[in-house]
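Note to self: keep these together.
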Amino acid sequence: MSRSGAFRSSVGDAWLVTAKDLRLERRTEVALGRMLPVALLVLLLFAFALDPDRVVLERATAGLFWMTELVTAVLAVQRTFAVVEEEGVMDALRLTGIAPAALYFGKVASLGIQLLVLELVLGVGVAVLYDARLEGWGLLAAVVVLATVGIAAAGATYGILVARLHQGSALLPILLLPLLSPVLIAATRGSDVALGNEAGGGWSWVALLGVFAAASLALGAVLFKPLLDETRPKHTSQAPQRDPPAPIRPFRRTRGPPPRGSSASSRCWASWPSRCSAW
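Structure:
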């Protein structure tokens, strides 16, 4: 197969994985059903807490937006990989012969689409609750797209790592959130410039987000195969081990007369008939 044919095949496989994840999310409505209420509640609480000081609220709009986005992104990654592990979907996909890189890019695309839907809803909430005014549409669009790609790429890599570990859901925020701190800083600063809260060039922050997204995609594509092969499945088909049965001890008569017909029984009945009859 030529390189162009192999590339088209990989793109097709990645799209199959993406479509499968999106169909699963549409049927279950678990990830967005959990993320949207949490995200909107966080925005609403901050709006009530900072409402007396509108200046502080306007300056903190970008930071609150991206902080809420990161928290809900962790929930999305947790649920996405928990579902595929519980149903055995990941093992089934591995048996189909799909290249691990195509599988990884498919997971990144599905996560990215879910996060973009979340960001659209959050953007409407920020405009309504925080009275945000947008001045740089192109800059904000570049920040949102590249930050989403970086979050999805890092989330897919760490998601497969912790999905099959014991207490992996508790480890994911500890591992993922520090890694995404450059995304939080760059996206917040770039969004501040787009909202008019900060002067200066915001495209330098876009370049930083692009470097992070490219590095995360390259590293994830390389590491996904060994992570997929070396992680231990949660559910195994081995039967539970049981303790070996206790050895059967021979029966011994500890009390009572000797059995009839034996020489000891004859002597007993000849010497002490009343005692033997009492037994």
